[in-house]
């Protein structure tokens, strides 16, 4: 590691702890309900943490999407929003921020990240196309397949290892990329997609060295590169920490270098700038024109793209704040702390710590549950039950059912515990780790899940499940016995 995290401080006691470099000025009441009420809530929610009401949730670690804390400057910027359907000054301020932070001049606003994926997929993907990428994201894959494309995940051997010291598990395997182009022909590859801080494999970054190698192959074949920048700030932070060449570079320089290697950069602003919305940017007028007309059709006029002008203002400020090291390192600092503590307790968790959240390996945590009974979903439900903390299943429930009626088993069965920026405190983090530890000691009590209502597309959002036995009741019984109360 090149550099220490500015939010992780050495204590006289010898400990190193993440310290909140911000103060709390607006608070929201949380609800830590007794375990019997949590059992009722998870049953009502079909054992799917997406279907819980936040009045039943203590720590909402479902996602960092739209849940990062906004800064005072973001909130106050909303007051200068310029309400205009066309030509709003708010849009031009956002355009300027994107130019400054990503180095791209032409901007298409969209209402969130998947809307950008819809537009890029419709503009460039045709039936029979192959799209190489480090790893898919659920919405990305859905849009690309809807347009007749087939995705190829060409990650390195290290990517799916739970325990690893590899600093860049999000890298693309260059040989696989070359082979894929040879197999499909460059004319059938509309672009290569790189996802910063690769979400579904544990928020793992790629290096600029790897990007440059991909760029070389892309140039040799005349293929463009598209960057999913939803988690680019954290990826840039890891590059600064882990890639020697950039140890002394500013986050801004790293962001510019990353974006400069790609023709198109798109993002979910719900993640990258702690607001809502999203965007697509490029410096190529030709590419811009290929996408432009889809924006009024699906999103809204070109100067708001389905977002409110208030969000656009806050997005501009949030993007600039992403270049501040104390902002961008806060979530990784807490995740690193949580991952190290879990690891010490023997809880199987993805290492090295990545962006977005701590990722617990449900297959090792619950080895007695077959993948067809959704260990990651069961772990998410069980953790909610014993703590009120809600994480997200990132495993086979988030995958799809094949035409033969069987599940497409996912590569990994993960419980993701997201750490939205500047939302949770250290004592809350300790509470989470403690309850997860209790669950680990009682893991044999946890059983599987089965679908009772299964949507055809993106089934993990609205799907309802049930426990395969009365294991939730038994878990509740043991919890009450051990804690002597029901919280
Ligand atoms: N790309 C990545 C890498 C993402 O993580 C997300 C969303 C999207 C695209 C889609 O953006 O939600 O604004 O439409 N990730 C959220 C998550 C949903 O919880 O990880 P969106």
Describe the structure.
With 487 residues, this protein is α/β, with parallel strands linked by helices. It folds into 2 domains: 8-64 and 327-483, Alpha-Beta Complex (Aspartate Aminotransferase, domain 1), CATH 3.90.1150; 74-323, Aspartate Aminotransferase, domain 2 (3-Layer(aba) Sandwich). 40% of the residues lie in helices and 13% in strands. Strand 6, helix 7 (208-221) and strand 7 form a beta-alpha-beta unit. Helix 8 crosses helix 9 (251-260). The two termini are 40 Å apart. Bound molecules: ligand F0G. Ligand F0G is lined by residues 63, 65, 112-114, 137, 139-140, 195, 199, 228, 230-231, 268, 270-271, 278.
Number of domains: 2
Sheet having the most strands: 5 strands, mixed
CATH architecture of the largest domain: 3-Layer(aba) Sandwich
| Helical run tally | 20
**What is the CATH topology descriptor of the largest domain?**
Aspartate Aminotransferase, domain 2
Strand order of the largest sheet: 3-9-8-7-6
Associated small molecules? ligand F0G
Uncertain stretches: none
What is the mean pLDDT? 96
> Which class of the largest domain in CATH terms?
Alpha Beta
Oligomeric state of the chains?
single chain
Number of strands: 14
């Amino acid at each position: 590691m090149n550099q220490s995290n500015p939010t992780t401080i050495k204590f006289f006691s010898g400990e190193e702890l993440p310290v909140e470099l911000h103060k709390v000025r607006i608070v929201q009441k949380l609800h830590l309900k007794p375990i019997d009420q949590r059992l009722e809530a998870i049953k009502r929610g079909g054992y799917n943490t997406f279907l819980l009401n936040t009045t039943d949730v203590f720590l909402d670690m479902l996602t960092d999407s739209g849940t990062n804390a906004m800064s005072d400057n973001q909130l106050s910027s909303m007051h200068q929003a310029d309400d205009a359907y066309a030509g709003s000054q708010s849009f031009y301020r956002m355009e300027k921020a994107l130019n400054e932070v990503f180095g791209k001049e032409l901007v298409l606003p969209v209402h969130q990240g998947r809307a950008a994926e819809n537009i890029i997929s419709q503009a460039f993907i045709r039936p029979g196309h192959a799209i190489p990428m480090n790893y898919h994201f659920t919405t990305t894959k859905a849009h690309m397949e809807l347009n007749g494309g087939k995705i190829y995940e060409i990650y390195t051997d290290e990517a799916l290892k739970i325990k690893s010291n590899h600093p860049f598990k999000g890298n693309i395997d260059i040989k696989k990329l070359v082979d894929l182009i040879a197999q499909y022909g460059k004319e059938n590859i509309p672009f290569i997609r790189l996802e910063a801080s690769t979400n579904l494999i544990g928020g793992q970054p790629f290096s600029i060295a790897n990007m440059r190698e991909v760029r070389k192959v892309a140039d040799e074949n005349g293929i463009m590169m598209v960057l999913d920048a939803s988690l680019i700030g954290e990826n840039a932070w890891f590059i600064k920490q882990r890639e020697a060449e950039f140890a002394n570079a500013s986050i801004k320089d790293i962001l510019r270098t990353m974006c400069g290697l790609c023709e198109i950069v798109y993002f979910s602003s719900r993640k990258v700038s702690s607001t809502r919305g999203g965007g697509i940017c490029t410096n190529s007028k030709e590419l811009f024109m290929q996408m432009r007309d889809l924006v009024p059709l699906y999103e809204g006029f070109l100067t708001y793209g389905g977002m409110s002008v208030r969000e656009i203002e806050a997005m501009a400020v949030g993007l600039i704040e992403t270049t501040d090291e104390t902002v961008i390192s806060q979530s990784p600092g807490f995740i690193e702390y949580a991952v190290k503590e879990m690891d010490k307790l023997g809880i199987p968790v993805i290492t090295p710590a990545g962006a977005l959240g701590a990722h617990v390996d449900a297959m090792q945590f619950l080895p007695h549950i077959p993948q067809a009974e959704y260990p990651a979903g069961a772990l998410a439900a069980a953790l909610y039950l014993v703590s009120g903390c809600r994480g997200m299943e990132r495993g086979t429930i988030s995958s799809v059912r094949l035409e033969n009626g069987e599940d497409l088993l996912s590569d990994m069965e993960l419980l993701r515990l997201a750490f939205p920026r500047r939302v949770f405190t250290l004592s809350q983090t300790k509470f989470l780790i403690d309850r997860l530890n209790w669950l680990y000691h009682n893991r044999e009590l946890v059983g599987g899940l089965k679908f009772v209502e299964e949507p055809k597309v993106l089934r993990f959002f609205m799907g309802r499940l049930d426990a395969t036995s009365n294991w939730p009741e038994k878990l509740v019984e043991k919890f009450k016995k051990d804690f002597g109360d029901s919280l």
